[in-house]
């Protein structure tokens, strides 16, 4: 049975303007609600609101397939449009016991640990510790509806209406978290650790060199 994608309505929560198409991949979605075709008026519970405008976030577009299914498009790595792997986004305005299937449809890799039992991670407002989704709810496969590209689909059931849920490819480790950790090491004035700035990245972020010494021997890493 051929799967038919309905014309979706994607609306910015703050402005009310409709967006969509390839232009949505230029930047991350920002408090974007995806409502059923033909819907107008006030936002209802169960009209999911997606957001990826935060550090390490990545989600460029959302297509409404049905009340229970959504196609997700991730943006490519910075400075390399060939690689599309990472995703990290939040979902809110959910309905209690609402069951959905999310399809990440534009992965650039044919091989993935998702084929060998790995699964995405999730946390929510009331449960801030990352947890892996059950592997039985995750599928990585060639999809005939997407030119036989590899798609990762996962099923999820929302259980708390007031929670904001966050999904990611794996446990995020942000640049800010790294900088806070390195700063905490510097404050300890460890005699065997030296931190230097090698330069700046293309996006003007610090590139650190750590020199760690022990028993007269020096090991360097970054």
Describe the structure.
- With 222 residues, the chain is mainly beta.
- The protein has 2 domains: 32-168, Immunoglobulin-like (Sandwich), CATH 2.60.40.3120; 175-212, no CATH class.
- The protein has 1 helix and 16 strands.
- The protein has one helix at 175-187; strands at residues 9-12, 18-19, 32-35, 49-51, 61-66, 69-73, 88-92, 99-104, 121-124, 131-132, 138-143, 149-157, 165-168, 193-200, 206-214, 217-221.
- It has an 8-stranded antiparallel β-sheet with strand order 2-1-3-4-7-13-9-10, with no helix packed on it. The protein has a 5-stranded mixed β-sheet with strand order 5-6-8-12-11, with no helix packed on it.
- Residues 4-24 have low confidence and may be disordered.
Number of self-contained structural domains: 2
Terminal CA distance reads 52 Å
The percent range for strand residues is 35-45%
* Rounded Rg: 21 Å
CATH top level class name of the largest domain: Mainly Beta
Order of strands in the sheet with most strands: 2-1-3-4-7-13-9-10
Number of helices: 1
